[in-house]
């Protein structure tokens, strides 16, 4: 529907700029993200404004990936925007996965409260390095699941589990004799224990990132997502669009940081003229404009591939690398242009810089995606020269 996404995005942008942004200094925001009282308050405002979960329509259908890009970019104009509008990670990706793979009963029980914003979720995949567990290499998964009657029993440890503290819905990955599996679970559960919440450079996601122990978790067999042994396939269904969603949201954040840096450079004077009139400053802002525009084009290109029905794993890897690296340059230039103010908490520029630095690692670090692309290059060459 022409203009549908633009109309939704315009409402989201007004809401984020006018209602959400003033809460960026709220004391309920901590190093482990906004607390649940702030999340509930902001989602109440979003519900009243008609912009809660705007990428999912009332009939349960999703906007196209291209349309979602427009809406999620608007929600990302504040670090709190995706939380308020219910477009944040990991919930947005988990909603997408359950919607694609879950049965009608699982959607009613687990997806519905996520879509209506009454629950948060967590995705339990990454494992501690000290256990030689799964990280960038998911085949190293140590968490196990075994069938016991009409239940599965899960044991293992997980780390960097975003939002586990305070979540009501969990998607747990474990390995059976068939291979990787996924399970939907109610949270909290006494068999799932938070060992600690990590102190990380980023601070935008409720609940932070936790280290988790899973000891004898019993899950009814009908709460398995899909089939035993197909968990890695389902992970790609989630992760390819999710990487792109990260790009969309953080493009919005860097757009706002650029706006703040431009305003600062146009108002602040030094050596007899506004900062922006010094080439050393003005050229950095010009480079920002170029990088931001290129990021938007890359995101739209990858979204079109996903909308065409292709999984787009290589394309999502290319987008993740190109966009995260370009946005890092943008965020860094914003800090540099603003000098001491840029490294202070007086604006969101400092937080955006920290968030983007983490983004270069989350959902696969740049180097892993490049390695994956290099393997594809070699594979394509072999096929072409067979």
Task: Provide a quick synopsis of the model.
Helices cover 50% and strands 17% of the residues. It is an alpha+beta fold and 386 residues long.
Q: Summarize model confidence as the mean pLDDT.
A: 95
In CATH, the topology of the largest domain is named Butyryl-CoA Dehydrogenase, subunit A, domain 3
The largest β sheet comes out as:
4 strands, antiparallel
Strand-residue proportion: 15-25%
Keywords: FAD, Flavoprotein, Oxidoreductase
InterPro entries: Acyl-CoA_dehydrogenase (IPR050741), Acyl-CoA_Oxase/DH_mid-dom (IPR006091), Acyl-CoA_Oxase/DH_mid-dom_sf (IPR046373), AcylCo_DH-like_C (IPR036250), AcylCo_DH/oxidase_C (IPR009075), AcylCoA_DH/ox_N_sf (IPR037069), AcylCoA_DH/oxidase_NM_dom_sf (IPR009100)
Family: Belongs to the acyl-CoA dehydrogenase family.
Domain Acyl-CoA oxidase/dehydrogenase middle: 122-199
Can you describe this structure?
With 386 residues, the chain is α+β, with helices and mostly antiparallel strands. The chain has three domains: 4-88, no CATH class; 121-228, Beta Barrel (Butyryl-CoA Dehydrogenase, subunit A, domain 2), CATH 2.40.110; 232-384, Butyryl-CoA Dehydrogenase, subunit A, domain 3 (Up-down Bundle). The protein has helices at residues 4-20, 36-49, 65-75, 81-85, 91-101, 104-115, 231-267, 279-307, 313-338, 349-359, 366-384; strands spanning 29-30, 33-34, 121-124, 144-148, 151-162, 169-176, 179-186, 192-198, 209-220, 269-270, 273-274. The strands form four sheets. A four-stranded antiparallel beta sheet has the order 4-5-9-8, with no helix packed on it. A three-stranded mixed beta sheet has the order 3-6-7, with helices on one face. It has a two-stranded antiparallel sheet with strand order 1-2. Strand 1 and strand 2 (33-34) form a beta hairpin. Helix 1 packs across helix 2 (36-49), helix 1 (4-20) packs parallel to helix 3 and helix 5 (91-101) packs antiparallel against helix 6 (104-115). The radius of gyration is 21 Å and the shape is globular. The model has no long low-confidence stretch (mean pLDDT 95). It comes from Sphingomonas colocasiae. Its cofactor is FAD. Belongs to the acyl-CoA dehydrogenase family. This is Acyl-CoA dehydrogenase family protein. Keywords: FAD, Flavoprotein, Oxidoreductase.
């Amino acid at each position: 529907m022409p203009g549908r996404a633009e109309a939704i995005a315009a409402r989201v942008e007004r809401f984020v700029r006018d209602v959400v942004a003033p809460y960026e200094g709220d004391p309920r925001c901590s190093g482990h993200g906004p607390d649940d009282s702030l999340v509930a308050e902001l989602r109440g405002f979003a519900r009243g404004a008609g912009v809660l979960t705007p990428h999912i329509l009332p009939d349960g259908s999703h906007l196209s990936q291209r349309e979602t890009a427009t809406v999620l970019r608007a929600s990302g104009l504040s670090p709190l925007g995706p939380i308020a509008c219910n477009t944040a990670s990991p919930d947005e990706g988990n909603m997408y996965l359950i919607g694609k793979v879950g049965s009608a009963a699982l959607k009613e029980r687990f997806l519905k409260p996520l879509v209506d914003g009454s629950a948060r979720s967590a995705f339990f995949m990454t494992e501690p390095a000290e256990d030689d567990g799964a990280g960038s290499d998911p085949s190293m998964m140590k968490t196990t699941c075994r069938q016991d009657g009409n239940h599965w029993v899960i044991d293992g440890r997980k780390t960097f589990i975003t939002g586990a503290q305070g979540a009501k819905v969990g998607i747990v990955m474990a390995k059976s004799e068939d291979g990787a599996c996924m399970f939907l679970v109610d949270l909290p559960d006494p068999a799932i224990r938070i060992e600690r919440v990590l102190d990380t450079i980023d601070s935008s996601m409720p609940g932070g990132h936790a280290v988790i122990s899973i000891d004898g978790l019993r899950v009814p067999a009908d709460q398995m997502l899909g089939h035993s042994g197909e968990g890695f396939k389902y992970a790609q269904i989630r992760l390819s669009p999710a990487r792109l969603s990260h790009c969309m949201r953080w493009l919005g954040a860097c757009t706002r940081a650029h706006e703040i840096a431009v305003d600062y450079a146009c108002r602040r004077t030094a050596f007899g003229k506004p900062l922006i009139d010094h080439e050393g400053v003005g050229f950095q802002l010009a480079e920002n404009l170029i990088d931001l525009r290129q990021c938007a084009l890359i995101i739209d290109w990858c979204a079109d591939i996903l909308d065409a029905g292709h999984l787009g794993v290589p394309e999502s890897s290319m987008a993740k690398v190109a966009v995260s690296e370009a946005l890092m340059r943008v965020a860094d230039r914003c800090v540099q242009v603003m000098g001491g103010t840029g490294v202070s908490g007086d604006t969101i520029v400092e937080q955006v810089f920290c968030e983007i630095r983490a983004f270069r690692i989350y959902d696969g670090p740049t180097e892993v995606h490049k390695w994956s692309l290099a393997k594809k290059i070699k594979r394509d060459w072999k096929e072409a020269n067979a």
